[in-house]
User: What shape does this take?
Amino acid sequence: MRLDDQRRSSNVEDRRGGGFGLPVIGGGIGTIVIVIIAALFGINPGKILNQGGNQPAQQAPTSTADTKDPQVDFVAAVLGDTEDVWSEYFKEHGGQQYQEPHLVVFSGVVQSACGMAQSATGPFYCPLDGKVYIDLEFFRELQQRFQAPGDFARAYVIAHEVGHHVQNLLGTSDKVHSAQERGSEKQANELSVRLELQADCYAGIWAHNAQKMKNILEPGDVEEALNAASAIGDDRLQQQSQGRVTPDSFTHGSSAQRVSWFKRGFEGGDLQSCDTFR
Assistant: This one.
């Protein structure tokens, strides 16, 4: 990725290494690693993360992110690029103002408005406070455990979570969550898959428009994103963790589905390309 000349976002919060002795709550449905845990027990990861979601969040101390840290600088650059792309997209399509999310980097545990979250949860988005949460250790896991190296693989993860923020702004998340509460567990999982695949597609929209606006892509970048999408498909994770695949318990989509929807967003470049609910 060509990020050296890109604007760095000022919306990155650094909560690493503090602990602060406070109860830590967080959670959301935009996770990746939690699928492995959920698959072992045949449960919906959204239910795990939504425990305590109605509890008022205590404000955790934050500090300005240190962009001298290469990983934080990378996150700030990618987040800044998503801000530029989605701000322009919202402006051109309906004249709306894009509300920028904050991105919290943490280590170990973190507090959000959605429930408790630990590093094992993986990156997630909390719609109640409009923030993305990432333990930077996940990027090492992505490379080593999931065999998905590369800077654009990491950028895809960030863009996917920002995709959940876009869904939140458009009202999609609320509609899906309401339907999940009325339906069965199987129906809730199916809706979760559609929501996650749409976030993959939105990540593709970002990549399409970032390339069009700023020419950020280098040879092999798209392949890195597709490899990451494939590596974290439900079928692949379930096969690795429990030795079998149970499609009824999918919550994020198969490897093939995740790859397909990212490609649709990347090729189409607009929201009309990403109707996973039709």
Observations:
- Residues 19-62 have pLDDT under 50 and may be disordered.
- The chain has one domain: 12-274.
